Amino acid sequence: MLSILGMIGYATLSFLTIITLQWLYELVRLWHIPSSLSLPLIGQLYHPHAPMVMKFLSGMRRKHGKIFSFWPGNTPMVVVMEPKCVRQILTDTKTFVKGSDYSNKFAIVFGEGLVTSNGTKHRQDRSCLAKYFVRSGVENYLGYMVETTQDMIETTLRPVDGSTIDLQEFFHMLALRVFGYFSAGHDYKNDPEAQWINHTVSKGSSIIGEHIVLGLPVWSFIPRIKQLKKDVQKMHAHIEKLIKRRLSDRAAGKPENDDPMKGMLDANLSRKEMYEQFTTLLSAGHDTTAFFGCYMAYMLAQHPEVQQKVKDEVKEVLGGRTDITPEDTKKMTYTANVMKEVLRLYTVIPFVNRTTVTDVKLRDNGLSLPKGTTALVPLCLMNRDGDVWENPNEFNPDRFADLKISDNSAKHGYLPFGYGSRTCIGNTLAMVEGNVMFALLMQKVTFTKIPDFKPKISAGISLVSTNGIRVGVTFDKE
Ligand code: HEM
């Protein structure tokens, strides 16, 4: 008995010694970077605000400036929100790579696809898929986007005319249908697996996000990780069905869309590569686009004067037409500015990170980051930085008319879709889709504010609302 207790005591002591030495090592390595007190094992998690990462990091920014270390446990990250340094981090892809958060944590869901791969594999993946995501490629799907949005408005919103709705399901289904047709010629309208996919992709994203942001392990015996791995297998089986259908259509000589499915088959990707690439595109593009739609509708409901201006613009450009053309989308500049302002305040991908493969100096301020440091770029905080944005928390789409910023602005640190060679491949798809969805919605529907509703925002991989996005829906008189 005594010897068992002795062994437990010895193991505990050894564990605590290793943890403390590791903590000391990290503390010395990053001594030159400003920060608040951290403790062995728990880092800064003793702080009551630490689990609310955005709030905690904004407090740290006020105290320590735009570069500081953040300890979500025993291993610190260096938070960098100085636009010039962020540019260096996101463009010098030889020094700043996607590290173990991507290869161990993201990879549980994404495998080795476009989001997680590095170097040559990433370049090959990107060149296989990029041509489908350019503006002209996306515009081939305007007709489908219009048809699907109209169908969803009539089937999902019309029945709740005059009452309230949580818009998550509406935008998740719409985003899934557009994604399915765009990437694989598949319409999810009557697919019995659609609900499961919507739910699983969202759940997977929030679990992995939590494990990354709070530095939690992803051991296979943890029940939620075990379940996630089973869900990924089910997703691969679903993708196999889509591939089989395409192959049998090909064998029957049916015409085929020039889409990512075709690109992957023509490039002779293995089945495993195709499963991982499709899961990657779906996981990266689905929750993001759906929540973008939710936040846009929510902000229009809070700001009736902005909503009216969008309605006026849509009327001016389209009249009563619904056949939206590429030229129409270019003319809806106020709507585009509203979308940009929504992405500024609700930065759907709130954080990105990179790991240094060698010691490196941040060119703009001379601070050095040792090899193996994770640099965390809080896109969400940069978008509300008072040094860059006047009245940063105010919803003011007109600021983009004055600034003449395109979808991204490296100078302002406004990077809702990232920056450099790893910029979001789906940014044009998301913006065109957003434009079509809201042009058609604004022709028919007015969103209204629910006085006692406020979304509870939580930052994982994407920025989600844990209590949904509720608005009132009223169909306009014809
Ligand atoms: C509003 C919607 C969206 C937002 C805010 C968004 C945001 C982002 C951001 C910030 C990144 C950069 C991540 C990093 O640097 O680590 C990214 C990458 C990526 N996004 Fe999106 N995204 C959206 C929609 C989409 C869509 C519709 C797709 C595809 C269907 C997509 C697919 C991807 C992929 C594959 C990457 C990785 C690109 C690479 O590393 O080469 N995203 N996204």
Ends apart, CA distance between termini: 83 Å
Strand content: 5-15%
Q: Please give the number of β-strands.
A: 12
Find the CATH superfamily: Cytochrome P450
Give a short account of the largest sheet: 5 strands, mixed
CATH architecture: Orthogonal Bundle
Count of helices?
18
CATH topology: Cytochrome p450
Secondary structure category:
alpha+beta
Which CATH class?
Answer: Mainly Alpha
Hetero groups in this structure are: protoporphyrin IX containing FE
> Mean pLDDT, rounded to whole units?
94
Oligomeric state of the chains present here: single chain
Number of domains: 1
From the alpha-carbon coordinates, what is the Rg to the nearest angstrom? 23 Å
How are the strands ordered across the major sheet?
A: 1-2-8-5-3
Question: What is the general shape?
Answer: globular
Organism: Triparma columacea
Binding site for heme: 424
GO molecular function: heme binding; iron ion binding; monooxygenase activity; oxidoreductase activity, acting on paired donors, with incorporation or reduction of molecular oxygen
Keywords: Heme, Iron, Membrane, Metal-binding, Monooxygenase, Oxidoreductase, Transmembrane, Transmembrane helix
Task: Provide a descriptive summary of the structure in words.
This protein has helices at 2-29, 53-64, 83-91, 100-110, 119-133, 135-139, 142-157, 168-184, 194-213, 223-251, 260-266, 271-302, 304-318, 326-331, 333-345, 379-382, 398-403, 427-444, and strands spanning 67-70, 77-80, 96-97, 163-166, 352-356, 360-361, 368-369, 374-377, 445-448, 457-459, 463-465, 470-475. With 478 residues, the protein is of the alpha+beta class. The protein has one domain (76-475): Orthogonal Bundle (Cytochrome p450). The strands form 4 sheets. The protein has a 5-stranded mixed beta sheet, with helices on both faces. α9 crosses α10, α12 packs across α18 (427-444) and α13 crosses α18 (427-444). The N and C termini lie far apart (83 Å). The mean pLDDT is 94. It binds protoporphyrin IX containing FE. Protoporphyrin IX containing FE binds at residues 114-115, 126, 179, 280-281, 284-285, 288-289, 292, 348-349, 352, 416-418, 422, 424-426, 429-430. Protoporphyrin IX containing FE (HEM) binds next to α12 and α18. GO terms for molecular function: heme binding; iron ion binding; monooxygenase activity; oxidoreductase activity, acting on paired donors, with incorporation or reduction of molecular oxygen. This is Cytochrome P450. InterPro entries: Cyt_P450, Cyt_P450_CS, Cyt_P450_E_grp-I, Cyt_P450_sf, Cytochrome_P450_Monoox.
